[in-house]
Structure formats: structure tokens, C-alpha cells
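Students often ask why inverse folding is considered easier than folding. One informal answer: many sequences map to the same fold, so there is more than one right answer. In these notes we will look at a single instance of the problem. The structure comes first.
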């Protein structure tokens, strides 16, 4: 399975609670933090929900 790197590039301050929870579920807590996940439909759905707060790279 392919992997992706997700990097948080914007703050979650003044964001809806569901977006904050999505960031936390992905393991992102600070700006600049990078996490690696499998490229599954579930993860991509989560990333799509917060695409304005993160960047994604294929590994």
C-alpha cells in the first residue's frame, strides 16, 4: 500500500470542532508537524475535509 506524508501548515484556532478533531485523529497537533499514513480511502477522506490546513506528499 502506498504511503502519504501529511504536514500541518495552518493553525486550528477558530476552526470548527469537527476539523480540530480530524487533525487530532490524524496525529497532528502543531504547525509543521509531519505524520505518515497509509493511502486509504478513510485517510484521504479525512485529509480532504481539512485540505486547507494541510499539505500532502506521496512517499
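Output (designed amino acids):
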Amino acid at each position: 500500500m502506498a504511503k502519504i506524508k501529511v504536514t500541518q501548515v495552518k493553525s486550528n484556532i477558530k476552526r470548527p470542532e469537527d476539523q480540530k478533531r480530524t487533525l487530532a485523529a490524524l496525529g497532528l497537533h502543531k504547525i509543521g508537524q509531519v505524520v505518515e499514513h497509509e493511502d486509504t480511502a478513510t485517510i484521504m477522506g479525512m485529509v480532504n475535509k481539512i485540505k486547507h490546513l494541510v499539505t500532502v506528499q506521496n512517499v
